[in-house]
Write a structure and sequence with these properties.
The chain is of the alpha/beta class. 41% of the residues lie in helices and 15% in strands. It has one domain: TIM Barrel (Alpha-Beta Barrel). The N and C termini lie close together (5 Å).
């Protein structure tokens, strides 16, 4: 039984192929596709693949907390919504701040103040209204700061969940990335149960190494059973590298989430 919609990040598998061919291969294998920034993509060619796109990055630049950064974030979110419409992509991904080369924050912070929390909440309320007007959902992704994204504000799953619950809009949900959560917080089943209806998507990769399920310490079949038990039927996205052959990695992912 397959109770979830399985998607695969085209940024991280079939790396020997041109990007459009990666999307076609993912689609041919029966998965939905996900992309990061759309700015360097041929949108017409992507749309012509016939693939089902479940999420894409929802901004090009900006932050949640400072006036210039908020303006950039809102402007590029509006642009991204136009691209999402062309790809018929329902969800757009956000982070606590803009990420640059190597996934590092453009404006790293060592401590988030109360004023920053209030500003982030107000910014996300505006983002949610943009999503409502466009009939799309923005997803705020948790990240880990220990390995991949040091200095990113609002990175922990608890942080993203608190902001989403404070905004309280069906057009702002959580992209709960279990790879990042395992590194930063652990207790994954308890975490998904606590997040509940705030979850808009689950993303997965194993720890360590950020490769497909079955290559590390996370027992993803148990995660799949817990998600099914709580009634989750949404997207589970593989955002991890293939440990070897990409097609084999995708099959291992499928098996981990087949009940």
């Amino acid at each position: 039984m397959m109770p979830f919609k399985l998607a695969v990040s085209a940024e991280m598998v079939f790396l020997d192929l041109p990007f459009i061919e990666r999307v076609k291969r993912i689609h041919a294998l029966g998965f939905s596709a996900e992309i990061w920034s759309w700015a360097d993509k041929d949108i017409n060619a992507l749309a012509a693949t016939g693939a089902d796109f479940t999420s894409m990055t929802g901004y090009l630049s900006g932050t949640l907390t400072d006036p210039d950064g908020i303006r950039q974030l809102l402007d590029s979110a509006r642009e991204s919504l136009g691209i999402a419409e062309r790809l018929n992509c329902p969800c757009l991904n956000l982070h606590g701040t803009g990420l640059g080369e190597g996934g590092l924050p453009v404006q790293p912070v060592s401590h988030t103040t109360g004023r920053m929390w209030l500003s982030a909440c107000k910014s996300l309320e505006k983002i949610a209204r943009l999503g409502e007007d466009a009939g799309r959902v923005f997803l705020l992704e948790n990240l880990n700061t220990a390995v991949d994204h040091p200095g990113t504000p609002f990175a922990r799953a608890d942080d993203t969940l608190a902001l989403i619950e404070a905004v309280g809009s069906p057009h702002l949900k959580m992209n709960l990335d279990l790879y990042h959560a395992q590194i930063g917080e652990g207790n994954l089943i308890e975490l998904i149960q606590r997040a509940g209806s705030a979850i808009g998507e689950i993303q997965v990769a194993d720890v360590p190494g950020r490769k497909e399920p079955g290559t590390g310490e996370i027992h993803y079949p148990a995660i799949a059973r817990a998600l099914h038990a709580m009634g989750y039927t949404g997207v589970v996205g593989l955002e991890g590298w293939a440990s070897g052959d990409s097609e084999t990695a995708l099959e291992r992912f499928r098996q981990a989430f087949t009940l």
